[in-house]
Amino acid sequence: MPSVPARVDAGGDPELAARLTAALRAASGDDIVIESLTHPFHSYPARMHPATSRELVMLVAESMPPRSILLDPFCGSGTTLVEARAAGLRAIGVDVNPLAVLVARAKTFTVPGRTRLKLQAVARAIAGEVLAAGRQARRATAEVAPLRGPTGFDPNARNRRLAAWFAPHVRRELEDLARHLDTLAKQDSELASVLTAALSAILYKVSSRSSDTDATWIQRNVARGACARWFLQRVELLVSGLQDLSATPGSPPEIFEADMRALGELVPAGSVGGVVTSPPYAGTYDYAEHQRLRFDFLGLRHRHLDQQEIGSRRGLTGLGAGAQWREQLGAAIDALAPLLAPGALAALVIGDSMGAGRAFFALDDVRAVLTSELALVAWASQPRPMLGAAERSAFGERGKCEHVILLRKLG
Q1: Which pTM value belongs to this model?
Q2: Are residue 405 and residue 261 in the same domain, yes or no?
Q3: HSE of 325 in the Cβ direction (CA atoms, 13 Å)?
Q4: What mean pLDDT is reported for the chain?
Q5: Is residue 292 part of a domain?
Q6: Between these two residues, 254 and 140, which has the higher pLDDT value?
Q7: What crossing angle do the helices spanning 189-203 and 168-185 adopt, rounded to 10°?
Q8: Does residue 206 lie in a domain region?
Q9: Among residues 2, 9, 25, which one has the least CA distance to residue 381?
Q10: Would you say 402 and 278 are in contact if contact means Cβ atoms under 8 Å apart?
């Protein structure tokens, strides 16, 4: 999302459009909300800015009936779910990406204080054992521990995919951390899951992959013992954020790993009092590829993501990309509409994008697929001025924008 001030064009209901404008502008220069609660715990490509999410949750919540649900059907790493939990709202999140679900559950793990203390104590014990094992491994007589083989993954293929990305001592430390988590999972699967999210948070930091969205190989010099220390630091950061989040009223959200187009099987019709979400940007990201290194290392099954990811770069190709994208977006809107209570608001954060050599104008696409059950009541659009040559050619004078679109359920 734009992180520098820029003009915002808005339309529809003047009061609601002003609120959407404020939500877009909230991301500019924010250094408070983005570092609050559990937001800093784990990176995630193209996540909604927490300050924008907070503004939209406040807006949508004002018209929610008591005990109704705030839904994020593309919850990603849980930014909106964290804000909903902080606001004391009952919330449900859905994502087809198993890593997103793992991270979102960790970021909203608001449990009694004694459980947070246990989480921290277990992490300290594991980090200590891994550091001690690393010192032992540097002795000439030490035996090299075998690499893990997560169930359902071919060990040889997994090792081939991972070998180029981690220095030998880094791989050994990471596997030792994961081995301890495998053991913990047999005793306390919930704690093991949260700690696995913490391990995921450091994986790219200690790898030779440039970033989540850039698979360029780079040289990284990672000190011995750094993996265990950074793992523990990440757990302590999470625990601190969870302590702040637990001080607010409410309960943890329900989070499901599922295709949002099947939401009717999970959420009762008419039970959703509001939606805050950021659907995929057409042809821009490929989460199955961006996070494959994490899937391979952690042993996360991602077949459904490979098959069902909406709007992925790999999935929108050729002359029919535009029609294919609108079909996917329309199916998502069609699945969402019956779940909303009459009068409920749905705030969508979505940007114009480029894929298959053409421009996708998000506001036009949403308008084109709206069901008769939903009305577009307000929107706000902020230009994205920094474009490459291909984007400037594709978007022309109209330019490329980020949008917040507000829908209302009729009836």
Answers
A1: 0.94
A2: yes
A3: 31
A4: 93
A5: no
A6: 254
A7: 160
A8: yes
A9: 9
A10: no
| Residue 39 identity | H
Q: Residue 370's pLDDT is what?
A: 96
User: Do 93 and 124 lie in a common domain?
Assistant: no
Proportion of the chain in helix, strand, coil states, percent, rounded to 5: 45, 15, 40
Q: Tokens 């964290």 identify what position?
A: 82
Angle (nearest 5°) at CA 309 between 106 and 105: 10
Looking at residue 95, its pLDDT comes to 96
Please tell me which residue, 337 or 286, carries the higher pLDDT value.
337
**Tens digits of per-residue pLDDT, 216-243?**
999 999 999 999 999 999 999 999 999 9
pLDDT on residue 141: 58
**Residue 276 counted as domain residue:** yes
Q: Are residues 232 and 277 in the same domain?
A: no
- Specify whether 239 is located in the same domain as 169: yes
Encode pLDDT of 347-369 as tens digits: 999 999 988 888 999 999 999 99
- Are 75 and 104 contacting, i.e. CB atoms less than 8 angstroms apart? yes
CA separation for the pair 86, 251 (Å, rounded)? 9
DSSP letter (8 states) at residue 152? T
Does one domain contain both 276 and 405? yes
Beta strands in 308-395 (DSSP E): 340-351, 353-355, 358-360, 374-383
Q: Please state the domain count of the chain.
A: 2
Apex CA 274: angle with CA 268 and CA 278, to 5°? 105
The dihedral through the CA atoms of 272, 275, 277, 281 has a sign that is: positive
Q: Where are the beta strands (DSSP E) in 9-58?
A: 9-12
CA 116/CA 6 separation, integer angstroms: 41
37-41, 143-147, 151-155: segment of lowest average pLDDT: 143-147
CA distances 341 to 32, 80, 184, Å, are: 33, 20, 42
Nearest-angstrom CA–CA distance, 52 and 30: 10
Q: Are 338 and 276 in the same domain?
A: yes
| Tokens read off for 320 | 């029919």
Residue 248 has pLDDT above 90, yes or no: no
Residue whose C-alpha is closest to residue 236's, from 138, 124, 156, 110: 124
SS3 per residue for 171-205: HHHHHHHHHHHHHHHCCCHHHHHHHHHHHHHHHCC
User: Do the beta carbons of residue 93 and residue 266 sit within 8 Å?
Assistant: no
Does residue 295 fall inside a structural domain? no
The larger pLDDT score, comparing residue 185 to residue 158, is at 185
CA-based nearest residue to 115, from 252, 230, 257, 300: 252
